[in-house]
Design brief:
Blueprint (H helix, E strand, L loop, with lengths): L6 E6 L4 H11 L4 E8 L8 H4 L10 H4 L4 E2 L10 E4 L3 H13 L3 E4 L25 H6 L9 E4 L3 H17 L2 E10 L11 H4 L10 H13 L18 E8 L6 E9 L7 H9 L4 H4 L10 E3 L8 H4 L8 E8 L5 E7 L3 H17 L6
Helix pairs in contact: 1-12, 6-8
Length: 366
């Protein structure tokens, strides 16, 4: 697959945690070029390096440090073929709609439009086929659009879960039950995030709205489009029940998830068959040779004590999923441990990979 030499992109919410990660990943991208940065009116009109509280492990990229921050209004981004949104959910909804109406392609990390019946909720290693609903999404706007659309990526914990689930369903047919308990890193709460006195020497057994998001998003992502191609079937052809328990733990980056599954088909696959399916799982992003795609979508650890956040979160630049402790479950069928880098594949990397796929499939006119 050949990609264009240069595609101008913008970043909304550029001073926030996700926005900063967008900038780090885009600064060395082979064809996406940062053209505009958007933030609040307090930051607008000033150099980016002056207004951001930079929290990344590398310096602010030189090409971005002196860029003047714009307000999040579409006029300042009209030359961008792609706009990445790292906006907080409190403000993202209306801003993203305004950008779409201005014929801009918006790839959002925010939750606001995930439940929209014509907005695809895409994990790039699972369901890029859902991009096919975009012409219908455009046709419903008034006036109808020719270029603008919104694509969302999933909640960070959902992202890690659905990749191995998709691999198992592809190999062995639909799943019937999924039970997942998460141990989620504090970076998932943004900056400044969880107060230190709440998280040090502690586990917080509740994250507001997180369990509901995991349970619902999984069905939209793993399901297909309706027969007319104008909606999502939410896995209703083979109903999937998901039960999630979400906790916050004193880890900086990397969400760990303990998963048990039951298959509809009997007898279920053996541990060996499941391991083989996970290891051989190939995604469309890899086939299209998207530059942000991992070499291996799912890395299956043989060691009994892996994956671990500190050791494995940055493997493959945090763009793949780590799975370990795959074994028989005496209550359901199989159980395993998942690790996902919540700020890379769980956030910015997913949006960037989604946009790469859209460019490759000519969903975006560049």
């Amino acid at each position: 697959m050949s990609f264009p030499q240069e595609v101008k992109v913008g970043v909304l919410g550029a001073t926030g945690t996700v926005g900063q990660r967008f900038i780090v990943l885009l600064s060395n991208h082979p064809f996406f070029r940062i053209h505009a940065l958007g933030a609040s009116s307090r930051s607008a009109g000033q150099p980016y390096g002056k207004v951001t509280k930079w929290k990344q492990s590398v310096p602010v990229p030189k090409g971005v440090r002196d860029m003047i921050v714009q307000e999040c209004k579409s006029d300042a981004f009209k030359e961008c073929a792609v706009v990445f949104s790292g906006l907080d959910a409190e403000v993202a909804g209306d801003i993203e709609l305004e950008f779409r109406a201005a014929e801009l392609a918006v790839f959002s990390n925010a939750k606001n439009h995930r439940r929209d019946p014509v907005v695809p909720l895409i994990v790039p290693l699972v369901n890029p086929s859902h991009l096919s609903i975009i012409p219908h999404q455009r046709s419903l706007q008034s006036p109808a659009l020719s270029k603008g659309f919104i694509v969302t990526n999933a909640n960070c914990s959902t992202t890690g879960l659905v990749v191995p689930l998709a691999a198992l369903e592809q190999a062995f047919g639909p799943l019937e039950l999924v039970v997942v308990s998460t141990l989620q890193a504090i970076s998932g709460a943004g900056y400044p995030g969880v107060p230190s006195l709440d998280i040090m020497d502690n586990i917080v057994p509740h994250i507001g709205g997180e369990e509901e998001k995991m349970e619902w998003e999984t069905t939209k992502i793993l399901g297909g489009l309706t027969d007319d191609g104008k909606g999502f079937d939410l896995h209703e052809k083979s109903p999937l029940r998901v039960s999630a328990t979400c906790t916050r733990v004193p880890v900086i980056e990397g969400h760990t998830e303990c998963v048990s599954v039951r298959f509809s088909r009997r007898p279920p696959p053996s541990v060996g068959q499941a391991r083989d399916a996970l290891e051989k799982f190939i995604t469309e992003a890899q086939q299209l040779k998207c530059p942000s795609a991992p070499e291996q979508a799912i890395y299956v650890h043989e060691e009994i004590d892996r994956p671990q956040p500190r050791l494995d979160r940055d493997f493959q630049k945090g763009a793949g999923v780590n799975v370990g402790r795959l074994r028989e479950c005496k209550v359901l069928d199989l159980k395993f441990v998942v690790l996902v880098n919540n700020v890379n594949l769980g956030a910015a990397t997913s949006s960037i990979m989604n946009a790469e796929i859209a460019v490759a499939k000519k969903v975006i006119d560049v």
